[in-house]
Amino acid sequence: MMMQVDVVVIGAGAAGLMCAAQAGYRGRSVLLLDNAKKPGRKILISGGGRCNFTNHQAGPHAFLSGNPHFCKSALARYTQQDFIDLVDRHGVNYHEKTLGQLFCDESAKEIVEALLTECEWAGVTQQYQTEVLAVSKGDDGFLLDTSKGEIRCHSLVVATGGLSMPKLGATPYGFKLAEQFGLQVLPTRAGLVPFTLHQAEKDAFADLAGVSLPVVVTAEDGTSFKEAMLFTHRGLSGPAILQISSFWLPGQKIHINLLPDLDIPAAIKGWAEAHPAQELKTVLGRELPKRFVDKLVELGQLVNKPMRQYNERELAAIANLLRDWPILPNGTEGYRTAEVTLGGVDTNELSSKTMEARKVTGLYFIGEVVDVTGWLGGYNFQWAWSSGWVAGQYC
Ligand code: FDA
């Protein structure tokens, strides 16, 4: 039997759940479809199982997009405070970790449960393990051929997310659907992702796996982040590296300030005066992980001797290395471990007010499938909530 609803939302992730509930509250009959067994799988694993669901500092500055202005409208109309109010209404306890990042005290499950409760209150019908086989458009809406039968709807919302974590069921379906309807899709690549190193560096740093240090890391476009960097068995990770990976292109170097809180030349001069008999390794070992300092000496990047034996030129060279430790990544770990997908449905194709496709009445794209990608720290969920909420007011 053919099913007829006002709105079909494809994808019961962060953006789809939010949008479905909002459309339901407007009195629209809504069917939320997903090819997975359950909703919100990425929410469940996010933030180490505690879901970093938004950020106090969320704003357009924290998003990458071909059109940096596009996200402004949705972020202003459904803010981090709006989502915090929703979380409060559902009695979810949370805390601020660092840099404005809000995490559940208990479990990410509470966020999924809150959104499912909203969907229930709004009368949304949900259908899982459903493949959309084909979509066509007629004068009065869309016809979907799915693995569970045909569905007609007036509005179709695509909330299928990005390509990261294919193990969790990520598919390029949303991009394909956009192309089917003649919308431009910008090239995609993995973002918020660890770097791999070339073999020589990988071997050299492998025994530092687990060592972490605060740094300022800068990309070639000048973007920089001050957070922790972590050595792994495959290369470099940690928040600073994940952040900068979204601004990195193959072949480019990243530049790492290893002592971001110090005026390095002045500090080195001070150490040389205060501890002339101590070796550089000893002095630096008080500021940086000892194993890392030993490694820099082992690799010949630093020459170790008593501080009094360095001349001015040598002290300046040490300062330069510590202020700008250059790394040429081999690549990234790709979609397998990436948190997000950069690129996607071109924002020029969409209304920033409604998220509706300019060329196709009734077709909406929300969340990560759109070319709007946030920094690490709860920004990507905020985009999912904001874009889902605005589309829910119109679809
Ligand atoms: P999302 O991926 O949530 O949902 C898409 C849905 O569409 C899925 O349910 C999927 O099954 C479904 N789907 C896909 N193809 C389909 C098809 N062909 N047919 C039917 N259904 C289909 N962000 C953040 O702000 N804070 C955080 O703490 C984290 N942590 C984090 C950890 C990890 C490991 C990852 C991989 C990602 C994060 N993120 C994050 C990013 C965040 O999870 C992501 O940006 C949002 O989930 C995007 O929301 P969407 O609703 O757009 O896609």
Automatic annotation (TrEMBL):
Cofactor: FAD
Keywords, alphabetical: FAD, Flavoprotein
Protein's UniProt keywords contain Flavoprotein: yes
UniProt domain RsdA/BaiN/AoA(So)-like Rossmann fold-like: residue ranges: 6-393
Annotated ranges, domain RsdA/BaiN/AoA(So)-like insert: 189-340
NCBIfam families assigned to the protein according to its UniProt record, in alphabetical order: aminoacetone oxidase family FAD-binding enzyme
Name by which UniProt lists this protein: Aminoacetone oxidase family FAD-binding enzyme
Organism, scientific name: Aeromonas lusitana
